[in-house]
Amino acid sequence: MTCTTKQTKGKWLTIAQKWQVIEEHGRLQPSPSLADLARWSQAKFKQSQPPSRATIANILRSATTVKSKLEAACTPKGRSLSQHTCLSRRR
Predict the structure, then answer these.
(1) Which of 22, 29, 44, 54 is the most buried (most CB within 10 A)?
(2) DSSP state of 74
(3) What is the SS3 assignment for 51?
(4) Percent helix, strand, coil in the chain (nearest 5)?
(5) Which positions ≥6 away from 67 have C-beta within 8 Å?
(6) Which DSSP state fits 6?
(7) pLDDT digits (tens, 9 = 90+) for 68-78
């Protein structure tokens, strides 16, 4: 059995990077468009392509969740450290 990986447009944003997008949205007045935030994210995080407008909208919509994950003990991708354990079996 071969293992294949799914190609994504760019790279996934970490929780800290998502929080930076949220802060950038709140910092600028008037609020930038989703496309503007996507281009800002591409430049700031050196992505090959900007995130989609839907991705930016989802990040902004989940601001409270992103903040709680940032403050909690989570991995950069937002997974709980207590559930993110690797078990190795020795045979």
Answers:
(1) 22
(2) B
(3) coil
(4) 45, 0, 50
(5) 19, 22
(6) -
(7) 888 886 776 67
